[in-house]
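CORE FACILITY INTAKE
Project code: CF-77B
Contact: R.S. (postdoc)
Sample description: multi-component assembly, two entities in total
Requested service: structural model of the whole complex
Turnaround: standard
Below are the sequence entries exactly as provided by the requester. Do not edit them.
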Amino acid sequence: MTDARSQFRALVGRELRTVARTRIYALLAVGVAGLLFALTAGGGGAQTGYLPAVVDLLLPLELLVPLVAVAVGYRSVVDDLERGELAVLETYNVPTWVYVAAIYVGRAAVLSATLLGGLLLVGLVIVVAAGPDTTVYATHSGVDSPILWGRFMVLTLLFGLAMEALVVLLSVVARSVRAAIVLATGGVLLAAAGGDALIVLGLADGWLTESNLLSALAVAPNSAYRGLVFETVIGVASAGEGGSAAPLWSLLGLVGWLVGSLAAATLLLSRRQL
Amino acid sequence: MTTDPILVGEGIAHEFGDLSVLEGVDIPVAPGEVTAIVGPNGTGKTTLLRILLGHLSPTDGEVRYMGPDVDRPIGYLPQQPSFRPQFTAAETIAFYAALLDEPAETEAALRRVGLADAADRRVEALSGGMRRLLGIAQSLVGEPPVAVFDEPASGLDPSMATNAFETLADRAADGTAVLVSSHDLSLVDRFADRVVFLNRGSVVVSGSPAELADSTNSETLWEVYESVIREPAARREVEA
């Protein structure tokens, strides 16, 4: 039988080469970097240090990251379906899971480069603009540090990867490229804002109590991301500010969105008639 | 000479909701032959091909592949082949070849369809006809024992259309079982070893072009088409 690993490599290579030769993705990366730079400069956090910049960027990123995930991935599968490429790939005995995994890895690489590029640029701005104490590599709580910025980047990336998996799933569900952009945008915004809205509703109606609030916060992707940033970045430098989220559950929540979306995408695609 | 079929569809039926698209279709595809499916638009040709490829499950009947156990048993050219526009013709074929264990020669694949000179040209810079030829090259990557072509000559000028059918006939001469759907009766008449006339989801007649001409007192495949599809349709309209 054909080697799944070489098929995976060929498919990932195709995705990366497609992206590298499509100018719009480079423009997207420049736009994201510019926007992050503007938000940081406008918020004034960069002059003070990494943590103030994190506070400035956290809320905008909760919206920006899902939208970047949509821009990078909404066409990923539906394009191949609509153009009949999947029907052709089927004749090469490419397993559905290999196809979905390769498409995801290819798009996730683009998303990672876009987000990390922008955040690295902002990090450099902070190095240049902020005071001397921000260059300290903190080994204990209460000190602003580039390590905290690094954590923030990793958590933002994790949030983005979970959103990208959801976008790939929605691209499998879509029946046309036009439907895909509506479905992907609506889907990620629903996941982003819907989770928070549901939690607020639950607290107001009383079916969500203080005892299960942290678990609920871990399930919704945005609140899981926010909780992780509060607990492992902002809370570290602010003594006594912990307990706003369950970090392990929040981490599992984001990983669950990632793995669950890709598993659902594989299942749906394997059942879809080409 | 009759060869045992390598791909067989038996009693194929398919329904989309309440609409019956195919009913009791039997179709054998033999190696070394070009088998052509002919019929009016909307008669179920593409649906039948999709079922034979395994992309669509029949409501009734079965499909059996009895060829060798290879990486790629069936090659396929869709009705509207589409590729990544950013890739060159050579890169496109190399990508598909990389999906198989057996190495396939990109240059030879392009030469076979007359695209060797356009190997470094991006897909977006190829004409519609050249893209279709690239599709034919793709469908033959890995030398599949069965090759299925959905309207390979559609949109091609007469010279390119003939080239496309010559390529299919060459593959059949090398032992490949070639199955093609086409509206071009003159090319089918010239290149097909066996023709299956499909109308309203059922096989009306099938056989070699000569057998069909004999059985319907016709001289050309177009006359066969007139007698088995157009005239019965006109009679039905009068009766209605």
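Facility notes:
- Strands of chain B lie at 7-16, 19-29, 34-38, 60-65, 74-77, 146-150, 177-181, 194-199, 202-207.
- The CA atoms of residues 90 and 119 of chain B lie 5 Å apart.
Invoice: internal transfer
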